[in-house]
Specification:
single chain; alpha/beta; Ribose 5-phosphate Isomerase B, Chain: A; 5-stranded parallel β-sheet; 5 strands; globular
Amino acid sequence: MKIAVGSDHRGFKAKQQIKAIAIELGHECIDFGTNDNNPVDYPDTAYLVATAVSKKEADRAILVCATGIGMSIAANKVHGIRAALCHDELSAQISRDHNDANVLCLSGDQLGEILLRKIVEVWLNTEFSGGRHERRVRKIKAIEEGKNPIEIKDRKSASDSL
């Protein structure tokens, strides 16, 4: 997979670790910066990275700032992006399995090296399960298009509503 990565100055160290993990797992990384600890604005990097995913120049992306919150908010403004802020392995797994998240947002300040590795490994190795979750992702896409998700009708049976 081609993975776009980016960070602000507070996430720089974690971004370097993430690149090493992704490459170790056999993925290609596209680094959108930043390239040092000098202050930068996280929305700039979030936009570049999320746009690469939106334009299919990367399969998925990982963004890091101090808390991950700013990157998540900014990335989710880009059409076609489902960015998930994850703090543990379970949230990383569910963000892919249930929500088909295409951008992982992480905290550079709150995660240690071991937990960071576990989250990244789980997120990169988890596929979207589809099924009942596909309907929900279609509804998220409808919201993005300015539609009311309640009006999205599905041909699936009521027993599939779990």
